[in-house]
What does this fold into?
Amino acid sequence: MTPVSDHLNKTLSKALIKSQADKSQQEIVIIHPEALLDVAKVLKEELGFDMLMDIAAVDWKDRRKERYEIVYLFYATQSNKRVTIKATLNNQNPSIASLINIYPAANWAEREAYDMMGYHFEGHPKLERLLMWDEFEGHPLRKDYPIDKRQPVPVLRELL
Amino acid sequence: MTALANNLKEDVIEGRDMGAKEMVLNLGPSHPAFHGALRTQVKLDGETIVDAASEIGYLHRCFEKHSENSTYQQVIPYTDRLNYVSALMNNVGYCKAVEDLMDIHLPERAIVIRVLICELSRIIDHLVCVGTNIVDIGALTNFWYTFNVREKVYTLLEKITGARLTYSYTRIGGLSRDLYSGFLNDLKVVLGEVREAVGEVTKLVANNRIFVDRTRDVGIVSKEDAIAWGFTGPCLRASGVEHDIRKLEPYYQYETYDFDIPVGENGDTYDRIMVRLEEINQSMRIIEQCMARMPKGAIMTTDRRVRLPEKQEVYNSIEGLMNHFKIVMHGICPPEGEVYSRTEAANGELGFYLISDGSMNPYRIKVRPPCFYMFAAYEEVIKGEMLADAIAILGSFNVVVGESDR
It folds into this structure.
C-alpha cells in the first residue's frame, strides 16, 4: 500500500524520488528538498494529513555521500493514517523551506533542528536556538561534535 | 480631596488614557507557579497580556546525544528523567520502540503488567497536574486530596519497582521483576482511595462558582488550532477531537479493554481539567480489567538476543556463558532499520523515532515529547488573556520540563 506516493506520482511526479515502507508497513516517501512546500500542500489539502507530528534531523556522516537528512512525520486525524517524508540536504549548506505557514507546529520543531543539527529553514521568522544558548558554538547532535566538549555558561537574555 | 485625586477620578470615570506604560514581566524560570524551569516573558497592558515569548532549555541534558553514546539498555534510566511525573510510561515507550525494531513479542503477563503500570502512571500524572493546576488558581484543598492518594500510589509503585520516582522498571523484552505477592490486594485498597479522592475533587470543583469563573472560557484552543499546533492527549481531546492512540492504533491489546475516551467541547482550561479527572476514572476501569485477567507466566521474552540466560545455564554450559557474555559486553544489537513507535502517554503522543545501524549503540533517537508542542503554542494562547489566567492555562497544559527539554 503506497497511497501517498501514488497520489504524488499523479500530481507532483517531479517531487518524488522513491517510496518504501518501514517495519510497521508505514509508508516512507523520499522527496527532493526543493519540492517540500508543494508536497506539504498536497498532503494537507488533498490527502488530509493535517498534523505535523515531529521533525527529526539525522546526520549520516561518512555513511552517506550526502550526510544531512530531515524526516517529517505526518498524521491525518480524520483517516487515522501516517506518513513519513524524508529529504536529503546539501552538505555545504543544509537548507530547506520552512513549513511554519502550512503547519504552525513546525515552529519549535524547526528551531530545534536548527539548534541541534544546524539546518537552515528558509522563511522561518525566528530561527534562533531553542534548547542551547545563543553563544553556544556548533551543533551538538552532529556526529562530529565531541560529546565531552564543554562551553562557557550563559547569562539570562531578553526575550521581547 | 486633593485636585490630583479629583483629576484621577475623572480620568477613570471617563476612561481617558492615563499614559500607563506597557510593562514587561518575567514568568519563571524559577517560580512556584511555573512548574519547572520554564521562562515566558510577557508584555502587559494593565493585567492583560499583549505579547509573549517563551524559552526552554534550562533542563536540557542532551538526552539524544547521550543515547547515541550508550547501549540500548543504558538508555532506559535516561528515559525515567523525561516525564518524571509518570516515568514508567517513558520506560514502556522506549522499550516498546526497541522491541518493535527487533520484532520481539512479549509474554502475556508482561503486557498486562505494562498496561497496568502505565494506567497507574496516568493516574498519578493527572493527579499532579489537576492538583497543582487548581492550587495555582487558589483552591488549596484539592491539592491535599490529590497528593494524598498520589503518595499511596507512589508507595505501591515503590513496592513493585524499588524506586519512588526513577523506576527503570522495564527491560527490553519484558520487565525487571515480577509483581510481589499480595500486590492485587494492595492495589484494590489504593484504587478505592483514588476513586474517593477523585470523586471529592470533582464534587468540590465541577460546579464551584469561583472555579468555573476562573477556568471557563479561559485559554480556549479551537479544534483546528489544536491540530495545527500538534496538540495530543488530554489537551487535544479537551478541544473536541476524539483522538487516543490506545483506541485508534491499539498496542498491548488495548482494543480488548473496555474504556471510554472523554472529550471536551470548548477546549478551555475547565475542559482540560475535567477531561483529566474523567481519564483517571477510565484508567481505573482499565486497571480493574487488568486485575481480572492477570495471566500467569513469564515476564521476559524467551528471545536470546535480549534476554540474559538463567544463572544455572551460564555456569553449566558454554552456550549459556557465551550468550551472557555477548549481551553484557556487546549489548543488544537490533538489525539495521528505523521505526517510529508511539504510545499514549499521560500528556499525549510520546514517540520514539529510532534508527539502528546494527551496532550496540542507537544511531539516532528522536523523542517526540508531547508537551513540547503544547508549550510552543503557549505564547500564542495567552495573548489577550489576563496574567492570572496565564498561570491557570499553563497548569492545564501540564508542561513537564524534563520531557520538553530532554
